Amino acid sequence: MSLRLSEGDSFKLRCSAVTTSLEHTHLHVTWQIKSGSTWQDILSLTHEGKFQPGPGYEERYRNGDIRLDTGANDTYWLSVSQASSVDGGAYRCLVSEWVRGADSTWQKIQEKSVEIASVAIQRTALDVVISTSNVSVTERDSLDLTCNITTDRSGVFQAEVMWYFSMSPDDTLSDAQVLLSMDRDSVVSDSTLISLSHVDRNSYRLLVRDVDVEDSGYYFCHAAVWVPLHNGSWHKVVERTSAPVSVVVTALEPDYEVFLNASKTPKFSDDPTELNCRITNSQDTKANIRFTVSWYYRPRLRSDDVVTEELLATMDADWTLLLGDRGRERTQNGEIIFSKKAVDTFSLRIQWTSESDRGDYFCVISAWSRHRNNSWVKSKDVSSASVSIFWATQDYTLTVEAVKLKPFFVAGHTFEMTCKVSSKNIKTPRYSVLITAEKPLTDQSNPNGTTRIISLNQDSVVRLEDWTDQTRVDGVVLEKVQENEFRYRMYQTQISDAGLYRCVVTAWSPGGGGMWREAVNGLSNPIQIDFQTSGPVFNVSVHSDSPTIYQGELADLLCIVTMEGMALEPDDMSFDVSWFAVRSFALDREPILLASLDRRGIVMQSRRNGSSDLSLERISPLEFRLRVHGCEDHDFGNHYCVVTPWVRSATGVWQREPDIKAKPIFLSVKMDVLNAFKYPLLIGIGLATVIGLLSCLIGYCSSRWCCKKEVQETRRERRRLMSMEMD
Question: Coiled coil: which residue ranges (predicted)?
Fold first, then answer.
């Protein structure tokens, strides 16, 4: 018998076995299939009445897909459900007869087999095709795709369909996104914008409404065929996936134009400026289109220069204003205002326009499209023509003249000078004045040469700048005599005040919001203070009897002041002494202040990290000694002193002389090798001696008490030898 079945079908085969033996025998029935050239057991009914599945058929036997049933007239039925390709082949029935012996063991008497049928399993053909190949749709339209299923399956079966989406045509099912599915019971998974319908028995329609640009990609259909089993369950016999279909969603760009005009243009500085950016001739701008604006500024440069545009401000999709670097502070102060006057109009207003605002302005209108997930994506940018903001101006001019009121004066008197200011092309100016002094390069207090002394701003507020003489805090005065005239006084002038004095004037014009705007700067002619004196000349030197010392020793450094010219009494002169050190062989590092002694005898020391200590004292009117106690290796370096002489004049006023710096002397600190190793050697020898004595003591005690043994000598019997004659 020959059977031709489809994959998933069921079939039955019958085998009859009758015995004619007079003995009480039992039959053993086995169904077998021919796999290649060998027969393989499927299922047996043993002579002991037990069912025994063959190798590889245990799972199918437990599921009920393979059964062996007995019937009338000694028939044995093999039932196979859910047939697959492995079930194809020749089937035979193998029957053996068994008898129980006297020792209760079973013995096979005879065995016979017969081929029952030849079964051919034909695979189920399934073809899954999407009706269209490549699709192009416009944004916000609907995408309609149909999946056609063709199979040679007859009888009862159900199809299961799933639609997938992927960005690449080579993605597998596990990598793709499941859009919708319809199971074999025609139950469709839930979705808002996507629907799946069963058009006819072999067609399944996918409809995507309101498509977006993000829907561009590859769509494919996956189908499976299910057949029912005898126990009411379903079995998947075949599944296929269609070729991907390319879908391109074309963005729907709105059509509009942008027009920029100036409703207010400045004629002079500090006038307001207002620009309006309007959207005109807009088309295809529905509710899901939103417009934002970006403002740009382009300075007016020469033709050979590269013009770069600067972002003033921009809006994101949520209409949040994002400021650029230019004008950020002015916008936060309210000097620049960005607003939206109407649905199609954006405004830029500069409350008080300055010369730095002159240039070209333009706006860019951006269109944003809303996607299905309520996110906004920029779809188009349209730029306007530029509008020029410019007015003719004349250059500001500022002239400053300094006049010395007293042509001749001596130290201790008052120095006085005036600064007269004149300006042109500045509307209602105000002036701020700064007095500076250019000291000689020999002045150690100000190595840069220029000192800012006192200033007066445009609101007539006076401020001391770099004036650090605490004894003369009120010694300098700057006042406003007239709108364009200022007077500077310095009381009780000293020798150290010699130098060139100037007036630095800044003209300010009123800006918007009560603010002042800097217009132009001017510098006056210098006024020189030069003291003609025949007083003493001081020199300073550093001396040490032993510039090379060992660690832990005392270092003595002397700062010696010598005087030439006119002799002074010790009570008429005093000195400020400061000691410095440069921790290098060459003077290539910053000096470190060690200690200072002012003319009142007050000593100040800087903080030190090491264990060494300092002392500074005056040992004579012209000699000052610095001692370093317990020198360490980090105390080496070039050491020098800086002396500031103070001389009392005939009027009793103390005059400060310029600072004098001594030539450095190098202090070398060496290590005392003998002292460094003396204590470690003594400690080592002491420890070795103690350990040796302790070892001897332990050995003696061990041998005396712990390791002593009683040695019992064997007593020997002493006998005399007898002479041979006695024998």
Answer: none
